[in-house]
Write the structure tokens for this entry.
Amino acid sequence: MLFLQLLLQGIQTGALYALTAAGFALIFGATRIFHFAHGTSFTLAGYAFLFCWNGGLPGWIGTLAGIAVAMLFGLAMERLVYRPIQRHEGSFFTVFVAAFGVAVVVQNLVGMVAGRGFASVDTRLSLATEVLPDVFLAPIFWIAIAVAVVLFAALSAFLTRTHAGVALRALAQNPDLLRAYGLSSNRLSMLAFAVGSAMAAPAAILTAMTTGLNEAIGHHVMLISMAATIVGGVGSLRGAALAGLMLGVAESVALQFVDTQWAEAVSFLVLFAFIIFRPSGFFGVAQTR
Amino acid sequence: MSGPQIARRALMGTALAAPFIRPAAAQGGDPYVIGTLFPMSGPNGEYGTLFTSGAALAIEHAAQDRMLRRPMRIQAEDTQALPQQGVIGMTKLVNVDKAHYVLVGFTAVSKAVAPVGDRAKTIMVNGGAVGPDLAGLSPYFWNVIPLAHLETQAFLPFLMQRNLKRIALVYVDDPLGDAILGLLRTELPKTGGELAGTFSVPRTAQQFGPVAARVRQVRADAVYVASFGAQQAQIIKGLRDNGIRQPIVGYSALSIASVTALPEAEGVIFTSQKFDYTGGSEITRRFATDFKAKHGSEPGAYNANYYNAVRLFALLAKDLEAQNTEVNGDSLRATLLRVREFDLVGGKGRFDDQGNMSADIQVNEIRGGRVVPIA
Amino acid sequence: MIAYAANLATIVAIFGILAATLNFVVGFAGIFSVAHAVFFGLGAYAGAQVALHIVPDALLACVVAAVVAGGLSLCLALPALRVRGEYFVAASLGLQMMATTLFSEAKAFTGGIGGLVAIPRPTLFGMEVSVLPLALVALALILFATALLQRGAFGRTLQALRDAESAAEALGKNVAAAKTLAMLFACAGAGIAGALFALHLSFVNVESFTMDQSVLVMAMVIIGGTGTLWGPVIGAIILLSLPAGLAFVPFIPATEVGAVQQIIYGLAMTLLMIFRPAGLVGDLSKGRATA
């Protein structure tokens, strides 16, 4: 039964990883910007929800606030940090360092304003009950899965059915061609940042209810998203989402076999193995060398 | 991952500038420098605030009472509870600020800085960490807090009496966690208990659902949590959310607001040093009243310990001033060993040959967000 | 006071070595490693073990550290041969994260989170020495080697494969060997820095070898200017002394000092990247640095 329990817990965690990773993959795929401050969107969204909740506002207002804050932050990063750097044709790593600097700033600001350390949303939703002998599930398990499924359905509809969505996918494949057709890659890149960052908000809100937040949480989220994007294959949203799910499950199910302190290393072992043995990821186009 | 924590490097930088800002070593009328090596930022910043407020109140009281000819001032170095920053901060306190007395906390940090202080013969006083190997680290390293072995010794009979015999341990694999693991492993069987399972978690782990699933498997009577800081709250919530209904127990690090304020922490039982703020001595009452007036909340064990640490310095230095002896590590130590017993918050504090204070232990329970002594 | 200034100069020199060696792979070979702290750590542990259990001879500690770190550089050379760009960064991040866990768990070698304490003072030919001259000599040697390699055939091969790997390969350059050798040199250098660090602080634990440290060293290289000789050293000096100005800020509440330092620090990183993306020493007119 331990296995089933760990698997279910892994799916719950993995669903949240998948959402965040898909957001990162969308941004990276469309703009080729390694948005290292994606985790910061997550942190900000989580704390925005927390503030609304503690202020006695209904959950849906908090959710909207979380999404809005994440989107605004993503857009601000695109306009104020990434675009000026790319004007100089700054290298990939210049972007990385700049984003890392922003992550440090926001982390400490959040710590000063919201208090350092642990904060969580007090709700019964995260309280697990025994559904099968020795298998405990919380209502939030079903919520996480439902949210993930609905959002992915909505995202794929957006990317395949709407004009903007199709253009985004085209941007990922051939930005020059897109420009030739008279579409503004600038506006599309902002769209990618808005949608991608918003994807982090639901996961952040659910995390605030389950494991709780701290000002440094974005860091871990970021690493997982990046790992999932690579493992899934760059450019593939489906791949990133599946890989996120898989990393969550791996981290949890690993406890069946190894001692508890190794759980975190498992995700990165998977990542490392993928890069060495299958660098194209699940669905990606081979990009070795 | 602990998140971007660049202050350790930042500290080096601060230190780099320091010689140019505050030249010249301490002179006649200069204040006594009380160095503090506390986490002031990062996930354990909460402790630094607690520790500092206790020490600051003691300085205020000493000034009001005109205990010393020279004033005291705090020189804070942020350690983020990390040993490397501790060593860097301690080197600065010793070499640049010429600290007379350094307050430390956290087991790993204390162990790392002890050799630096030992070499410089600077007194270091711990009022927060409880790793048993902190006893006798150096002749210049004192403890004004009963160490973990005293806590567990007092705690195990209580657990047995409550019929909590099979204990599962969730611990962080650092010097303190190791110490508690070792104590439970050897001491539990002696009192008729049993260590049902041990679960090491990384210091930065956030997900405790899967750990809870493993803990459930061992069918313990109680779960002992040996972590510190904000992670404790996360562990407690993770365990409670995921079907652990057994009592959760622990040690004095649990007495911080982020734990006591957590709804899931209701009923958590832990040990701490014994303080009686209402019926106790004049010193204790004054401390409790003034602390409450200043901070609007009841003082906790940590506030009191660091108050005591600074008060101890004031008492020792007063003695030395009366004899016109220079205040340094050796003279402070000689005086401590000569006097041995001091009037401190919580009653008489008695020190042994190594400079460890013994004190009574009480068992507390978190009830309605407050810490209530139950035994 | 002088002891204290020396202490800081030592740390700057050690980080100068780290930044200079990382610059060698980043700036000349185009390999963006975020796992430099792993090799720094390996060297530190190896050096500390030598000092604790054999003799506290600085030279021996440095040699052993260089061998251990250089030998294990294959862990990173392997992905470097397979992938480039973001993929390699991710691989090195993965290695960094695994190494952090390993460092915390392999207690026999690393002492776990508690670390290795009471590492004896270093000696050289039986005489006790301070680490500062050793670190300065090591830094000078590494800069000298870098300058030589940069001008020599090896350096040109590396730069060729940084700018156009397939072309270099087509011209008959042995890409795999060149990359592996570059990694070996850089990681061995990081190992030496590690050994000096351990001897200097007489204490090491895993918290000095985390991803934050790797990113910090990377930031030194980028801020100073990739592919330049002096850029990384200047980056190290700036990043270690930048927050010094904060000491002049009149009043920050004690509980916020750490946070304020980090905020200014992070801001400086971001602003520098926006306004001087090629680094302080790097030549802007040449446009982008690499990658």
Summary: Chain B touches chain C through 51 residues (CB under 8 Å). Confidence is low (pLDDT under 50) at residues 1-28 of chain B. The first helix of chain B runs from residue 7 to 21. The radius of gyration of chain B is 21 Å.
